[in-house]
Amino acid sequence: MSLTKTTTVDQIVVQENGIVLYREATRIMEDGNQISQTYHRSSLTPAQDPTGVPANVVAICNTAWKAEVVAAYQAAQAAQQTQQVSA
Q1: What is the average per-residue pLDDT within 29-56?
Q2: 12, 57 Cβ separation under 8 angstroms
C-alpha cells in the first residue's frame, strides 16, 4: 500500500478588474486510486506581492497585471474608499 499526496493548481481565473482567482486541489492517492480530494481557493489583487504563490499563477499575474490594469484597480479602490467615508 502506497499513499501519495499531490497539490496542483487546477483553476485560474482573471476577473475584469484584474483580480486573479485560483484553486489548488490536494489529492490523496492509494496505489494509483484517488481516495480523497480537497480544494483551497485564493485570490490576488493587482500589484499584490505573489511571494509563495505557485509559479503558473505568478505567470498569469505577470501577464494580466499591465500598468493600466493596476492603475485602474487602484483608482477604483480609492473611489470606493471615498464613497464609504462620505456615506
Answers
A1: 96
A2: yes
